[in-house]
Specification:
By secondary structure, the protein is an alpha+beta fold. The protein is built from 6 helices and 12 strands. Strands 1-10-9-4-5-6 form a 6-stranded mixed β-sheet, with helices on both faces. Strands 2-3 form a two-stranded antiparallel ribbon. Helix 2 crosses helix 6 and helix 3 (about 105-120) packs across helix 6 (about 225-245).
Length: about 250
């Protein structure tokens, strides 16, 4: 999807993807978000992408530039109990995702990609923050996001913050970022759209990527090691591009 059309058009894509997810999930015996994308499909390169990101990598990530507008503001609490606003992160690049602290599907995969991206950033790492916003209305406690962060080794990333809050405050953030969430119950996996926003040091949305997962015959999610590594490199390249002095 081209950059200017992303914000208005992706809602229909998310709904269609969610329907497909439910069909596959039912047959496999699990309910989880599954964002399937064409993997490095051949196609014309979109204008506005960082020159450091190859066309094949951009296609793998479904990376698109978005209209340069201020990212919707929010204030939530991270896994350490620290209150944090998006505005407080001005001056650094923000990589923003939406995660379920009880997810066993795509969220652990994105977690590994964040760890890889942090490593790949090298000297640029202090200029980048990795954020996730909780999408599970039944598990809103700081202890929930702290447990997930520890389990997925995200605590090895110094600038990692898994944000949570009251259900109304979280729902407002989901709506502001056009994230679809379906939480069937406290013991079920949350079905949610997985969108990765890249926000520049001035607090403006710049790029959008679509994380993906594959599933084996037993329904377990995975991503081939080479694609995991590519995702980490791609996240780091985009973040480094935004962190570079104008």
């Amino acid at each position: 999807m081209s950059g200017p059309a992303v914000r208005r058009g992706r809602g229909l894509v998310v709904i269609a993807a969610a329907v497909a997810v439910l069909i596959v999930a039912a047959s496999a015996g699990y309910v989880a978000i599954r964002v399937r994308q064409q993997q490095a499909a051949a196609g014309p390169r979109q204008s506005g992408l960082p020159a450091s990101v190859s066309t094949s990598l951009a296609n793998l990530m479904q990376l698109s530039p978005v209209p340069v507008t201020s990212a919707p503001e929010f204030t939530l609490t991270d896994q350490g109990g620290q209150t944090m606003s998006l505005a407080s992160l001005r001056g650094r690049v923000v990589v923003l995702e939406f995660m379920d602290p009880h997810c066993t599907d795509i969220c652990p995969i994105v977690s590994q990609e964040f760890i890889d991206a942090y490593r790949d950033l090298g000297a640029s790492a202090p200029h980048v923050v990795f954020l996730a916003v909780n999408v599970n209305r039944y598990h809103l406690q700081v202890a929930d996001v702290a447990a997930f962060s520890a389990e997925q080794r995200l605590t090895t990333v110094p600038a990692w913050h898994f944000l949570t809050g009251s259900y109304p405050s979280l729902r407002a953030v989901w709506q502001a970022y056009q994230i679809e969430v379906d939480a069937p119950g406290p013991d079920a996996d949350v079905i949610h759209s997985s969108q990765m926003y890249f926000i520049d040091p001035q607090g403006r949305e710049r790029f959008l990527a679509n994380p993906m997962a594959d599933h084996n015959t037993s329904g377990s999610s995975y991503l081939p090691a080479n694609q995991l590594a590519s995702w980490g490199q791609g996240i780091a390249l985009v973040a480094r591009h935004l962190a570079a002095p104008a």
